[in-house]
Input
Amino acid sequence: AAGRAVIEGKVANAYVLNRPPGHHVEADKGRGFCMLNNGVVAVKRLRELFGLGRIALVDWDVHHGNGAQKAFYDDPLTLTLSMHQIQFYPPDSGFVEENGAGPGLGLNLNVPLPPGAGHGAYLHAFDRVVLPALQRFGPELIVVACGYAGSALEALGRTMAYSETYRAMTQRLK
Output
């Protein structure tokens, strides 16, 4: 409904607060407390309903957005970008070298951040990698998997983002 409202011009942007998170779900299995990949479902459904071409899915959670990567790895119309702590979860994915395949080659970008990365590191990576990639790709719609587990207050992660980090990334994205 939020995506539909944005596409129809009823709102300029929307924030959907939903649980459980979904960015670890792959086509054949749930992972990491996730049972439904909300971002992937939204991208596919909105493309189906509105005939959208280029869509970008940005994930800035501390964990790699492996579900979106797998869903769109060879898709030439979907740019997936994941900013996450390197080799954290899942530890077997999210490497810089994972760039997409076939017609989707170059459209999967991973930005693995070292443990301890904070506000400055997030914004530097956002400004130097994420925004230029989005500008080159020229998406009709951007969907954000807005995980807050990169927060300094997250017990499991080791990155040091805080509310101003997420506000600044959102402002830049808009």
The chain has a mean pLDDT of 92.
